[in-house]
């Protein structure tokens, strides 16, 4: 990608609209230098001309902002285009909207692309984006929010969630919409079955139970197959982002800090596909308090990908007697982990490009970060910013990489078993996992995923 071209292009109808949007971008996206372009449709109103304009823009995300009166029929411009979002504003024209509202609508446009999950009831499929089945499909998420995330809860994880409301359903997966303020919507066969509340310091509970079915076996393998083109378009954009970051300076290594989680694993695959094994170096920091299942996963996937993973060890338990357990307000363990990571990077590279798995849905703080940024005198690039969890899950399985078994057991995110970010239910889960942390269980959990690998 040429340096002058953006990673995101915002399209508006007229020059006056462009001027207003440019002001919003300069104010709310201060650190996104040259990453957001704003172009006009030169007054075009009909869908054909919008589609023609979109076709000229390659390997980027496209958000089309149109006023209420300008949007008739334009939605079809995003059909079969996973990287295009048509945002209908409440005002008649873009320039009539307040700056803060425009910012929120830009963020909704970003969210729209990752939340395109459709249920095809006739085939029992959860498909990403539009497909040849689009007329028979139903979109799961219609109310967009910049922090919403969506993912599949598989196999044993299903048992963990269903145990909370004491439900007995015959299903191989649940679709989970992670909203805000501890709220989760659980879908069975494409319909909202219950609302699950997961408080930080109390036991989870369910409410608003309805639309339950007795049996729902989803064909996940076929779902991934049909989602292939959707994922490939997003993969190509990520490769473009990575190449752009790499070409900005003279790097000698591409470093992927690899936790074993789904996001950093997907980043490792993307980096390998973009740069090759000679340039890419994964680094795993073993704190001494990691689950053995995670260590086994790192070794297993390293062998699958045929990469030499640097394992940097630091025994955090040595510091606990002096400092006590880490807390929300004092996460000294994270600082030690980052120091260990830097130590490993310094040994292998003097000019590293760091590829991180940050995604918008994780926090407001990460949502505001640009795709490429300078942090502590090194360049970090986050190619997955606009991805949802289900996109990452499908992408790993599409590339014949199993999900970390810790997700299969019920974890939403991964960390050490003393992690201060754990919620009440995760602490209980951690105790169970520690009791079954062995290689035979690891292999059993991988076999459970064998039918999902595309």
List the defining traits of the structure above.
454 residues; alpha/beta; 5-stranded antiparallel sheet
Strand order of the largest sheet: 17-16-15-18-20-19
Q: Which shape, going by the Cα principal axes? A: globular
* Count of individual domains: 3
| Strand-residue proportion | 15-25%
Distance between the termini: 31 Å
Q: What is the number of strand segments?
A: 20
Question: Helix coverage percent of residues?
Answer: 25-40%
Do you know the CATH topology of the largest domain?
A: Rossmann fold
Main sheet attributes: strand count, strand direction, barrel closure: 6 strands, mixed
What's the CATH class label of the largest domain? Alpha Beta
Label the structural class: alpha/beta
Q: Any guess at the CATH architecture of the largest domain?
A: 3-Layer(aba) Sandwich
Mean pLDDT: 89
How many helical elements?
A: 15
Radius of gyration, taken over Cα atoms and rounded to an integer in Å: 22 Å
Low-confidence stretches: none
CATH-wise, what's the superfamily of the largest domain?
HUPs
């Amino acid at each position: 990608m040429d340096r002058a071209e953006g990673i995101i292009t915002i399209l508006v109808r007229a020059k006056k609209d462009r001027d207003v949007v440019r002001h919003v971008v300069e104010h709310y996206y201060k650190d996104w230098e040259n990453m957001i372009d704003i172009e006009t449709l030169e007054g075009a109103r009909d869908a054909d001309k919008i589609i023609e304009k979109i076709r000229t823009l390659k390997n980027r995300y496209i958000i089309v902002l149109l006023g209420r009166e300008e949007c008739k029929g334009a939605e079809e411009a995003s059909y079969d285009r996973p990287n295009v979002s048509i945002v209908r504003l409440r005002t008649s024209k873009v320039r009539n909207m307040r700056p803060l509202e425009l910012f929120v609508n830009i963020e909704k446009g970003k969210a729209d692309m990752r939340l395109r999950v459709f249920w095809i009831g006739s085939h029992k499929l959860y498909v990403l984006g539009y497909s040849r089945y689009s007329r028979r499909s139903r979109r799961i998420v219609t109310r967009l929010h910049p922090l919403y995330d969506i993912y599949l809860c598989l196999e044993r994880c299903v048992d963990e969630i269903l145990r909370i409301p004491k439900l007995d359903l015959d299903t191989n997966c649940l679709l989970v919409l992670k909203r805000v303020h501890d709220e989760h919507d659980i879908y069975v066969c494409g319909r909202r079955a219950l609302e699950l509340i997961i408080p930080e310091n109390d036991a989870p509970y369910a409410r608003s139970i309805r639309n339950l079915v007795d049996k729902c076996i989803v064909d996940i393998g076929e779902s991934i197959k049909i989602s292939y083109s959707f994922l490939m378009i997003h993969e190509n954009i990520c490769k473009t982002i990575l190449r752009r970051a790499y070409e900005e300076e003279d790097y000698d290594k591409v470093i992927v800090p690899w936790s074993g989680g789904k996001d950093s694993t997907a980043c490792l695959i993307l980096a390998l596909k973009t740069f090759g094994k000679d340039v890419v170096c994964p680094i795993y920091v073993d704190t001494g308090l990691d689950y053995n299942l995670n260590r086994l996963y790192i070794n297993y996937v390293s062998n699958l990908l045929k990469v030499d993973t640097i394992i940097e060890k630091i025994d955090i338990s040595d510091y606990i007697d002096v400092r006590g357990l880490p807390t929300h307000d004092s996460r000294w363990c994270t600082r030690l982990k980052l120091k260990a990571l830097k130590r490993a990077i310094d040994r292998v590279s003097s000019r590293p490009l760091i590829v991180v798995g940050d995604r918008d849905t994780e926090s407001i703080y990460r949502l505001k970060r640009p795709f490429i940024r300078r942090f502590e005198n090194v360049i970090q690039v986050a190619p997955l910013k606009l991805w949802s969890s289900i996109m990452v899950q499908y992408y790993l399985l599409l590339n014949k990489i199993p999900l970390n078994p810790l997700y299969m057991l019920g974890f939403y995110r991964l960390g050490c078993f003393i992690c201060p970010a754990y919620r009440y239910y995760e602490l209980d889960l951690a105790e169970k996992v520690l009791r079954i942390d062995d290689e035979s269980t690891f292999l059993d959990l991988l076999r459970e995923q064998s039918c999902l690998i595309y």
